[in-house]
Specification:
Layout (H helix, E strand, L loop, with lengths): L1 H56 L10 H10 L1 H35 L1 H15 L7 H8 L3 H25 L3 H9 L4 H38 L5 H10 L3 H33 L5
Amino acid sequence: MAEKNSKLGIGTETGTMVGGAQPAAYSTGLRDGARSILLPIVLALSVLLLWELLVRLNNIPQVILPAPSAILKIILAQHEILLRHAVPTVLEAAGGFLIASVLGIALAVWLSYSRLAREALYPNLVFFQLIPKIALAPLFIIWLGIGTESRLAFSVFISFFPIVIATNAGFANVDRNMLKLCQSLTASEWQTFSSVKFPSALPYIFSGMKVAMTLAIIGVIIGEFITAQKGLGYLIVFATARAETGVAMAAIVVLCGGGLFLYGVVALAENIANRRYGVPRG
């Protein structure tokens, strides 16, 4: 009977510990999540407040540095113009990113399966990565004209390399024991790729895609700086030439908002892919 009570006592104590650990872990997770959201917001608001105070206390002219409140007023007053110019910029950046992602992942898959291609092509990819690509932007205008094609092509060109390099690194770092297990189970190449290689490389792929997303926007903006009649890059250049610093800053704010939206779409796709393939979160 004593042994039975002892067992029950242990079981009760263990159950209490387990039951108490779950709410504690849940509370810790909520606290960490709230912290990761609130800290960036508090820092950003603090910077904006300091910016506002410096402009007002030092009477800095708006043509040199407008206050955040002045920029907000311009955004509210001219939101239609800003949005009209934001649409082509965001669409071209998204299009360039999608093309670069498809081409980059496809090339990385080829490099992972072809030793000849890897030895011949990968060093050249690294070499091209070292070239200051902004210097090549005028050449795209010469080759493809002043339309959307040149901006889209340059966006693909500038955002293509991070995806290739990151994806290739992901395929190269797949667990060898898992590959040997697939061979012992006589799994096909497609089964090995879809069940082991691709899921293992997902963190690398999306790391490269997040970098590529920002570069795709940069590529489009550079193209709009050089030759465009619409887009946020064109609006920034036009407003700067007229000394309308507030309008230029408002366009930059809208551009940041569009970039955050596209980056959030990539992050959402990463979350869906991780859930689909059971990849643990970092």
